């Protein structure tokens, strides 16, 4: 029998310790039966299953051109190949039409689902697009931290506003320009990321959707999501497409961070007090608190330092190895599950407020447009 394991539940030292000939499989599926993958590969002794790529492929209910999807998959697997892994596979429907330099396994279990995603009944809702990532989070947290957190926030927002918001399945892959610094971290690639998400917006606009909110659990996504929002607004002048810097970071979140944190500035950069608290609340079974290493020796100057809400006017991207030995920026030892619960409640409240604002922005702008306000008189 094949021993299967979830790649994204490992810590980066555990990924570093994997034999480089262990097969790793990336499924294109909304859900995936790892036994199918083991059978397709002839039942190897061990099999690592990467997070499923939930949509974008033909049959997923929300497809983009294979020319947009293929670079994303290629970049993800290229990173693993660069790290020395030699047996890399994609599990995909036969209709996916991918052009990638890695073996594609097809199986009848991946039959196309004709159900549209999202359903057409959600056209008057804000479509939440949660994007996490699969990247290292120090010695004590797994690779799926960002995905777990942003999925919980998105689902909590929809639970509060079921008539006003709809959440797509969480995307577990984003952008990490520091991919080579620590094992386990993947990278869609900035340009491939932007092109893919613009393709998703294009597909949804063609179906009549006009309000979108990108939710990111990963800081590396943010500059690229800003570009996506700008391009989308330029191409589709009657939509309202927005994002925000991470989560728990706006006017509500910032106040809650200050209220409950016990670490100094620098304690919440990455895998620190905030993210560890979230995981202790949401998935304590994946936390290895006995391995926590607090690292706050970030090379800081008045306009460049690292915390959850980064400060200063300087924007840069130096190597992570300059500032952290363990992969963490922050003080995970200050984390507590109760803090995670409190911060999650505030993060959901913040996103609920944003959804309401997006609805109001769209409504009021459409009223102006229909009235022929300003230069819209010549455009209508």
CATH architecture of the largest domain: 3-Layer(aba) Sandwich
Average of per-residue pLDDT values: 94
Task: Based on Cα principal axes, name the global outline.
Answer: globular
Radius of gyration: 21 Å
Structural class: alpha/beta
- Which fold name corresponds to the CATH topology of the largest domain? Rossmann fold
What is the C-level CATH assignment of the largest domain? Alpha Beta
Order of helices and strands: EHEHEHEEEHEHEHEHHHH
Quick one: biggest sheet? Answer: 5 strands, parallel
Q: Give the tally of β-strands.
A: 9
Distance between the termini: 65 Å
Number of helices: 10
Residues in β-strands, percent: 5-15%
In what order do the strands lie side by side in the largest sheet?
1-3-2-4-5
Number of domains: 2
List segments where confidence is low: pLDDT < 50 over at least 5 consecutive residues: none
Which keywords apply here?
alpha/beta; Rossmann fold; 4-stranded parallel sheet; 10% strand
